[in-house]
C-alpha cells in the first residue's frame, strides 16, 4: 500500500476558481459536447526535396554562391494554391528569395528549381565534412551516413571526403546540401530518451508515493507539472481542481468532433479517483497532489518535431514527460500519461542552440548531480508557468496524451489541450487525436478518397467540413492498422497508417500499444524505438526497418553540426508521435 504523506499546503490557503462549486465532476454532467481545439493558422511552407550550392565569382558582390532548391509543384496544388515563381526564406540571418524565373542565378524558368545568389560559408561546410571523416576514421566506419524517409531506414548516403569536397567547390561544381549527422555521436540514454533510475528516481526532483522517498514538491513530479500548468496566480484555478476536471472526462461520454467517445466511468473511479480520494483523507476528499499516483518513466527530447528552420524558426519541437499510473497497491497499471510541451524559438540559430543543450548531455555522467542539474535547466524552460505567455494559462503545453487499457476492455488513446475560452477555460479539455481518423472509418470509401487525394494532414471533416473525419479518441484493437483495398498506391496506405496514433502504436510497427512500457524502471522500449524490421501488415511486403532512436540521434547530431542552409531539404515529420 502506498504511504500517506502529510499535506504540505492547506487547500484553503489557495484561491479557488469562481466556477468550482463542490465536486468538479458535477460541472460536466450533461455537458458532453467538447469542441476541437482551434488550430493556429500557419503560412504554407513547402518542403524542398533537394538543395544545392555552387561557388560563383559574382562581380557585383551580391554573394559568392548560387543556392538552389527543388520543389514538387504538387505541394501547392494539394493546398489549393498556385505554383509561385518565388519562395521566401530566412536563413542564418539572411532574408532570401529563391526564384524560378530564369534570373538572378536561376538557370531555367518554370523547371521547379528555385535559386538565389547568397553569401555562403564554404569553409564551414568543409569543416563539417572533416568532422564526419575524422569521426568515422576513429570508429572504423565507412564514409557514409544513414538515410531515413519519414520514420524508416532506407539505406546509406555516401559522401565525399573533405579533400574531394574542397576540390569540387573550387571547380565550381554543384554541391548537394543536407545535414551531416552521425547517430553514434549522440548518447540516446542521455540526450534523447532519459529513463535511468538516477534521473527518474532522483530523490531531490521526484517522489515515490509507495515508499515516501523523495521530494513531493520535486521539479519532475506530476504535482509540479500540473501546478505550473494550472498557473493559479493568473487563472484562479487550483491544481487540485485542474486535475479533478481532467479525470472527470472519463466519467462521462464525450462528443468530440461529432464522434461519441464512450465513458470509462467504472475504470477511472475504481482504479484512480476513489483510491486517490481515500489516500487524500477519505471518500470525496479533494485530491492531495502529494498522493498523485503517477510515477515518472522518462524525460524525452523531441527536437525532431521542429518546423523547417529555413523559414526563420518557430517550433523547435517538443519536450516531454512520460508517467505511468500506479494502482492502490502500488502496481503499475497499463496506463501512461504524456505531457508534451512546445518549444518556440525565433531563428535557426536559437533552435540549433536548443538542440546543442540536449546534445551536450551526452558528454556528462548520467544521473550525476551535474547531469540532473543541467537537465533541470532544460526542462524548466518549457515546464514553468508563463513559459508561453500567448498560450492558454501561459503554459507551453501543446497537448497531454494518454494511452491505456486499464480503464476499459480495449486500448484507447486520448488527447487533451488547455481550453483558452468557453465554460471550461483554463482547464484541460478532450481534443481530437492528431492525424488519426475515427477508427470506424477504417476500410471506408471516405478513407480511400482521402488517401488518394494526396493530402498529408488529416482534417476535421472530409470530404466536406460538415462530415466528421478526425477522431475523438483512438480505439486500438490488437495489431490494428489502417487499410482499404482501393487505396493506391499502397505506399500511401502505409504512410497514413504510420502517421496515426493507433497505427503507429499497433500493427504498422508491430508494437503492443506502448513505445515506452509501463512496468519496470528503467522502462522497456518497443522494437520501433530500438530497431525492428516489420513486414507490411496489409500486403506482407515490403519489409520496413524502424529504429526511431537511431533516427532521432542522427537528426540531433545533424542539427547541431550542420549550417542552416543544410536544413533546407529536411522534411517536417508528419507523425506527431
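^ C-alpha cells above, recovered residues below v
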Amino acid at each position: 500500500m502506498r504511504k500517506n504523506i502529510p499535506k504540505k499546503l492547506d487547500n484553503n490557503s489557495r484561491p479557488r476558481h469562481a466556477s468550482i462549486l463542490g465536486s468538479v465532476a458535477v460541472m460536466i454532467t450533461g455537458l458532453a459536447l467538447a469542441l476541437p481545439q482551434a488550430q493556429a493558422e500557419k503560412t504554407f511552407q513547402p518542403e524542398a526535396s533537394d538543395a544545392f550550392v555552387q561557388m560563383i565569382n559574382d562581380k557585383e558582390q551580391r554573394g559568392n554562391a548560387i543556392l538552389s532548391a527543388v520543389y514538387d509543384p504538387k505541394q501547392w496544388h494539394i493546398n489549393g494554391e498556385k505554383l509561385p515563381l518565388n519562395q521566401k526564406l530566412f536563413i542564418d540571418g539572411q532574408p532570401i528569395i529563391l526564384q524560378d524565373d530564369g534570373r538572378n542565378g536561376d538557370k531555367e524558368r518554370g523547371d521547379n528549381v528555385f535559386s538565389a545568389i547568397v553569401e555562403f560559408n564554404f569553409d564551414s561546410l568543409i569543416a563539417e565534412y572533416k568532422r564526419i571523416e575524422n569521426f568515422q576514421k576513429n570508429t572504423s566506419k565507412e564514409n557514409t551516413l544513414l538515410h531515413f524517409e519519414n520514420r524508416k531506414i532506407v539505406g546509406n548516403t555516401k559522401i565525399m571526403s573533405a579533400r574531394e569536397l574542397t576540390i569540387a567547390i573550387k571547380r565550381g561544381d554543384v554541391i548537394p546540401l543536407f545535414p551531416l549527422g552521425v547517430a553514434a555521436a549522440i548518447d540516446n540514454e542521455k540526450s534523447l530518451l532519459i529513463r535511468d533510475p538516477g534521473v527518474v528516481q532522483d530523490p531531490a526532483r521526484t517522489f515515490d508515493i509507495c515508499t515516501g522517498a523523495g521530494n513531493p514538491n520535486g521539479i519532475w513530479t506530476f504535482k509540479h507539472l500540473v501546478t505550473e500548468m494550472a498557473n493559479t496566480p493568473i487563472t484562479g484555478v487550483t491544481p487540485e481542481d485542474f486535475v479533478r476536471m481532467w479525470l472527470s472526462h472519463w466519467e462521462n461520454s464525450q462528443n468530440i468532433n461529432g464522434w461519441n467517445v464512450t465513458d470509462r466511468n467504472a475504470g477511472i473511479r475504481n482504479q484512480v479517483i476513489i483510491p486517490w480520494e481515500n489516500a487524500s483523507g477519505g471518500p470525496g476528499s479533494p485530491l492531495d497532489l502529494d498522493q498523485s499516483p503517477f510515477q515518472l518513466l522518462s524525460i524525452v527530447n523531441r527536437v525532431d518535431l521542429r518546423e523547417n528552420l529555413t523559414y526563420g524558426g518557430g517550433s523547435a519541437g517538443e519536450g516531454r514527460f512520460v508517467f505511468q499510473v500506479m494502482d492502490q497497491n502500488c502496481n503499475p497499471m497499463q496506463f501512461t500519461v504524456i505531457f508534451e510541451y512546445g518549444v518556440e524559438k525565433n531563428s535557426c540559430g536559437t533552435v540549433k542552440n536548443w538542440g546543442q543543450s540536449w546534445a551536450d548531455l551526452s558528454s556528462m555522467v548520467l544521473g550525476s548531480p551535474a547531469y540532473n542539474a543541467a537537465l533541470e535547466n532544460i526542462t524548466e524552460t518549457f515546464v514553468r508557468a508563463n513559459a508561453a505567455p500567448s498560450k492558454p494559462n501561459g503554459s507551453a503545453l501543446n497537448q497531454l496524451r494518454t494511452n491505456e487499457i486499464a480503464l476499459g476492455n480495449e486500448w484507447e488513446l486520448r488527447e487533451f489541450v488547455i481550453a483558452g475560452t468557453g465554460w471550461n477555460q483554463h482547464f484541460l479539455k478532450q481534443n481530437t487525436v492528431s492525424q488519426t481518423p475515427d477508427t470506424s472509418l477504417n476500410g471506408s470509401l471516405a478513407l480511400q478518397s482521402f488517401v488518394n487525394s494526396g493530402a498529408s494532414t488529416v482534417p476535421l471533416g472530409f470530404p466536406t467540413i460538415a462530415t466528421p473525419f478526425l477522431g475523438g479518441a483512438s480505439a486500438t484493437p490488437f495489431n490494428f492498422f489502417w487499410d482499404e483495398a482501393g487505396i493506391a498506391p499502397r505506399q500511401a496506405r502505409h504512410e497514413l497508417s504510420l502517421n496515426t496514433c493507433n497505427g503507429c502504436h499497433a500493427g504498422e510497427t508491430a508494437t503492443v500499444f506502448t513505445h515506452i512500457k509501463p512496468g519496470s524502471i528503467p522502462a522497456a522500449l518497443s522494437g520501433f524505438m530500438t530497431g525492428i524490421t516489420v513486414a507490411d501488415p496489409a500486403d506482407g511486403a515490403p519489409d520496413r526497418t524502424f529504429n526511431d532512436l537511431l533516427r532521432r540521434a542522427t537528426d540531433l547530431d545533424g542539427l547541431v553540426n550542420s549550417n542552416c542552409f543544410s536544413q533546407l531539404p529536411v522534411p517536417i515529420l508528419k507523425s506527431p508521435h
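The longest helix spans residues 122-138.
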